[in-house]
């Protein structure tokens, strides 16, 4: 009789796990849904925030062995990501500021002259990590 695993631990630095194809399985949405439906869990450790944001249903931010926060990507960004940032480029100059009243602020800037480009940047999982730990991943 075959033994079915209910959980797997995958470390982003684990070449053996990568060779077995677990990361490939995790990246396929239909396979992840199938694993979930079977009651299986994959614990994935990584330093790559973009990858964690794409692959994981739930995320725990761990620093020096302590869980600082956990939840869905949306929950973490809402609770710990800070606000959005309005970025405006005029010629060679780019300004960044909190986007609490983005439309009103954008209209005020436009009244001063031509805007070449603008965008609204939302907080990312990396910003959540920075806010929770007070340091970057490279430190």
H/E element sequence: EHHHEHEEHEEHEH
Shape estimate: elongated
Could you give a short account of the major beta sheet? Answer: 3 strands, antiparallel
| Number of helices, where a helix is a run of at least 4 consecutive DSSP H or I residues | 7
Helical fraction: 40-55%
The total beta strand count reads 7
- Structural class, by secondary structure, is alpha+beta
Which regions have little confidence, pLDDT < 50, spanning 5+ residues?
none
Overall pLDDT confidence:
81
For the largest sheet, list the strands in their spatial order.
6-5-7
Distance between the termini: 48 Å
How much of the polypeptide forms β-strand, as a percent range?
25-35%
CA radius of gyration is 20 Å
What can you tell me about this protein's structure?
This protein is α+β, with helices and mostly antiparallel strands. The protein contains seven helices and seven strands; from the N terminus they run E-H-H-H-E-H-E-E-H-E-E-H-E-H. The strands form three sheets. The chain has a three-stranded antiparallel sheet, with no helix packed on it. The chain has a two-stranded parallel ribbon with strand order 1-2. A two-stranded antiparallel ribbon has the order 3-4. It is elongated. The termini are far apart. 7% of the residues are buried.
